[in-house]
Structure formats: C-alpha cells, structure tokens
Amino acid sequence: MADERLIAALDVHTMDDVKRLVTTLGDSVTYYKVGMELFYGVGAQVVTWLREQDKDVFLDLKLHDIPNTAAGGICSLMRLGATMLNVHASGGYTMMKTACDRMHAEAAELGVKCPKLIAVTVLTSINQDDWRDMGLALQIKSAVVRLARLAQKAGLDGVVASAQEASLIREACGKDFLIVTPGIRPAGSDTYDQSRVATPTSALTDGATHLVIGRPIYAADDPKAAAEKIINEMEKVR
Which domains occur in the chain, in start order? Predict the structure, then answer.
C-alpha cells in the first residue's frame, strides 16, 4: 500500500537504526529522506544500502556555496545514486543553474539516470519574527514564491517549501513543478520545532507533490501502523 508521495525521514543516528526502521516499515514505504546528521554520521553507505533495498532516496544536504563548489558537490552526490538532491535557493540563480547544468552533463556522460534537483526556499522552522530579525523585508510567502520562480528559471525540478506556500507556488510555477513539503503533522500530532506545519490532506490539496514525515512515523509505538495511517489519509487526495 506504499504511496510514492510519502518520503519517510530517516532522522536516526546509526546504520542499525536505519536497517531496523526500514525493515519494520517494509513495503509500506518506498521513499526515504537522508539528512545531514545521518549522512555525516555514517556516510555514503546509507544511500548504497537503501538503493540495494530498491528504495528511493532524497539526499537532503542543502548545498549552499559558490557556484563551482556547489556544482562539484552535487555531481559527487549524484554518483551515489540518490533519487533527489537539493541546494539552497538563497545561493542564487547562478549557483542553482551551474549545479543543475553540471549534474545533467555528468549524468549524460556517465550514462546514468539524472536525479531530480530541488531548492530549499525558506526553512519551515522559520517564523515571521525570525524572518524580520534577519532584516528581510518581504513576507515569507512572497519570498518563497520568488525563490521558487528563480529555481524554476535555473532549470531545477522543484522546491522544498512549507505546505502553507504550496498553493502559491503551484499557481506561480505550474503543474509539473515538484513541491516537497516538510513540517507535515497528522491531526493531533506535536509540531515539535516546526513553525509552519500542515496535515497530509491539506498539504496535498494545496499542491504538494511529496510529503516528508519523520517523528510521527519513527517515534510511534508502531511505525508501520503510523505510516499506513498517514498513507490512508493521503489516498483521499489524488
């Protein structure tokens, strides 16, 4: 009953933790997010192992550097076989376009399938007060849409954004643009450190293409049952 729109976040610490959770979830989940803490802790083996289990991988390392360095980093990560990679949109148009163009060129040269490349707009932990404290004048929603349009212009496949901005991005960037939304919490769940959250149903209704969900699954007493409950909710929106 897996739903390819669900990306389960592997916000765990060791390969043993990874194997335990992935085995527990079984066929219920086919797509996993690997973030900084796990990747920096165990290295590339986590991506290799997940691919050996026929799982898709969103390698969420949020590259942000000068164009040549970001492009080189993306190409190195591309060779690991991840399904989707990301950069920070705030790195600018030239950084995003350079990374995208280099990745596609290298994938073609190697004869491998090119991963999707998406851009982080504004982190879902940031609220309007945080935003104002950074001296940024635009409203968060306006900034997110501007960054999404910039990412699309640079040739990227989509963005990471709060579900609260999904409908605006969908309107601005069209039906084929990926919108990957973290900060998803089933009704009644704790929001933890996320400020801009949504339920699975509302996020998909507003235009999200993928939902990244961590704690409500891995911290549940029965992770598989929790994942399947979320999937059942997601299936109401197609």
Answer: 6-234 (3.20.20.70)
